[in-house]
Amino acid sequence: MNLRSISLFVVPLLFMIVLGCEDKALPVSVSAANESSLTTHQPITSDIINGKGTKMGTAKFTQLAKGVQIDVVATGLKPGLHGIHVHETGLCEAPDFKTAGAHFNPSGKEHGYDNVNGEHAGDLSNLVAGPNGKAEAQFVLTTVTLQKGVSNSLLKEGGTALVIHEDPDDMHTNPSGNSGNRIGCAVIK
Length: 189
Prior knowledge:
two-stranded antiparallel sheet
């Protein structure tokens, strides 16, 4: 394991332990999240639904100078780490969200930060849910855009989806890091 993969798993857990596992999860970033937003595209906010079709949170997508910031708030999760990824199809049909397709991967790479042939454009670090089942996180994906008409756009024809998985992402196993069932989904259109 490299330093990045260790920090993706250990750092959020250490913060939770040091803070006594407070009732809210700590933010996890994929990249430098302190960039100013571009004014060329309004942020997109989507409801995250669970397998029963009930709203369990929101995801906000904001275009930055170098990528897309994703702000996630979700409830009803088991405490701990959850894989979370952008998937290739903007369709979230409960209960299993298989309609969202595979990970968003316009460059044809393999899954995960630790994969020498990776990573998918839609790969994110794990989402951390606190003891009360709530997760709040901010991610930045520098591999995607909200600008239409380019191959790495989240707003491609048919849209894309943000999917939360039941288990942690191991950051290297194809196709989804052994992250288990899909338990939450938000359409990005």
